Amino acid sequence: MVLVAIRYVHGHLEIIDQLRLPHEEIYNEIQNSRDAWHAIKTMQVRGAPAIAIVAALSVAIEAADVLKTLDLGVNSNCYGGPKTPSAEETAKQIALQLEYLVTSRPTAVNLADAAAKLKAVVSAVADDSKSDCRSVLKAYIGAAEQMLMDDVKDNEQIGMHGTAWILKRSLPDSRVSVITHCNTGSLATAGYGTALGVIRSLHAGGHLRHVFYTETRPYNQGSRLTGYELIHDGIPATLITDSMAAALFNTRGESENIVAVIVGADRVAANGDTANKVGTYALAVLARYHGVKLLVAAPRTTIDMETKSGTDIRIEERPQVEVLNTRSPRVVRDAYGTQEVVKGSVEEVCVAAHNTRAWNPAFDVTPAELIDGIVTEKGVVEKDENGVFQWNKVFD
Question: Element (H or E) spanning 102, and its range?
Fold first, then answer.
């Protein structure tokens, strides 16, 4: 059964609460853009593609509510006006909602990119003299729903291109092992995943030997979410703490046939510098030292040609309490040491000394020099002889 993190039918949206995973599978309803902003900010939903889709669909939910009101012949509307708004007023209100949602997570470019595209859609419809409020709302809903469908298709293409790229650089007929960081699967996208999509594709083709995935402190997206997805899909995998990667490369890299580190991205600058979950840079340095390829998996919407380099990327800093404390359910053990989770017993505990100060950047930037390829839905982008990524392959 396919893991579904975003449940959407016209006029209704639910997301799996990723803060409750892996021990509880709870879906929360998103009724409006305020709900979506809160879910994104608190990381109930996370992953650059997923937050863009949830944000877009939350406004579609509100748009559908307005259409229902208009169909009932009621003049008042959820935009607060005393009468049915004009096409221009409707487009303006949608634009304001999208701009508000962009403030929830500033580093991921997908959210801003989706907002810009959707604003362009409603603006174009509103400019037509024959348009009214209904036509703008319907156009927005259609565009947002199309983004949901396109994301899944794009991720499957990323998986296919990434698999071909890795196998081309591996020994014929050998099964490969890879390392991944954070969570880049169905929970981080509309479905299938980016870096985890490549891993799913390798596994489906019988080419995957093993996946090693990092814990990904401080939010543990690896141990909580990637582990949840890998176990769900029956993919052979082993969890390591972030600090074990060097030892893994050194002691088991050859015997396990570790050929690649595959990661996602929250923003790729024009020169190829890549912002991703903090810890990616360290893995990139280790991979280069040990002669292992680093592959970034991301849809074209993550590539920000307006940002020249990583120094121009704004890095979100989150509360230090996320480093100082951790949340988890209690466990009980029997006489044989078998562990069982007590469901519904989630508690927050402190793991640092009293009065400790912590720094908590959500992302770091991996220099383009350390990246061997960037796989998109249109293919893999590599550097030319001058060390420059050639984007024309995927954007022309």
Answer: helix 87-102
Q: E strands along the chain, which residues?
A: 6-9, 12-16, 27-29, 176-180, 208-214, 237-240, 258-263, 267-269, 274-277, 293-297, 303-304, 325-328, 331-333, 339-341, 347-350, 363-366, 373-376, 379-381
Closest CA to 227 of 287, 182, 260: 182
What is d(CA 384, CA 271) in angstroms, rounded to the nearest whole number? 12
d(CA 27, CA 4): 10
Residue 259 burial (CB count, 10 A): 22
What's residue 230's pLDDT? Answer: 97
The contacts of residue 222 (CB under 8 Å, 6+ apart) are: 180, 181, 182, 183, 213, 214, 215, 216, 239
Tokens of 79: 């935009």
- Copy the structure tokens of residue 392: 């024309």
Helix (H) or strand (E) holding 365, with range, is strand 363-366
| pLDDT score for 24 | 87
Quote the DSSP letter at residue 378: T
| Sites in the chain below the pLDDT cut of 70 | 1-2, 73-83
Radius of gyration in angstroms for the set of CA atoms belonging to the chain, rounded to a whole number: 22
How far is Cα 345 from Cα 328, in angstroms, rounded to an integer?
Answer: 8
Whether the CA torsion 125, 127, 131, 137 is positive or negative: it is positive
Query: Phi and psi of 118, rounded to 5°?
Result: -70, -35
**Using CA atoms, how far apart are residues 276 and 295, in angstroms rounded to an integer?**
12
Residues with catalytic annotation?
266
DSSP for residue 327: E
